[in-house]
Amino acid sequence: MDKLIAGYRRFRGAGWIKQRTTFETLAESGQQPKALIVACVDSRVDPAMIFDAAPGEMLTIRNVANLVPPYAPDKAYHGTSAALELAVQVFEVRDIIVLGHGMCGGVRALLHGAPENAHDFVAAWMSIAESARQRTAHVESPEARQQLCEQEVIRVSLANLRTFPWIARRVAEGKLRLHGAWFAIRSGVLMTLQADGSFVPATGPEGEQ
Predict the structure, then answer these.
(1) I need a labelling partner for 110 at 20 to 30 A (CA). Which of 17, 64, 68, 75 fits?
(2) Does the CA dihedral 78-83-85-90 come out positive or negative?
(3) Is pLDDT at 80 greater than 90 in this prediction?
């Protein structure tokens, strides 16, 4: 906690001053984010850093393995679904990006079983992506299967997004776009899901990757 407080003090002394006008405007006028990122809770994958986003630019949902569950309106607790409803129905975001990443511990739990001390919730949560595990069963290399399964989980989440009627409706009306992306922690390369189902590196300035 001490390290975090020290970080806050640096922010207050420098970062806050640089962005004070932005924060004051957001406080007075409210937020109008145009995008929602569904990302993993992994501490190495910060959506705001990856997309160089300023405060107020995007909403973020973070959970284990950037999973979206199927639409299931009942009396249970649905944190991810509630955040989706807020983003789409209230803020009317224009884009939803499912952001997966390399070396994902949630996907590792899907492929090899959850850790012994993480069976209360993690194992059941990752069962949402059982189809991704099955679709990668033919891959022999553990590393290759891990990465392919990470990308298949992104496809699972995108498919589940379309089970929400108000998401499907806005997509059909051209008011909402769904995207998939995968981030390589080691290299910093972001790959985006194409219409043909492939993941292609997003190029940087002057084609740099």
Answers:
(1) 75
(2) positive
(3) yes
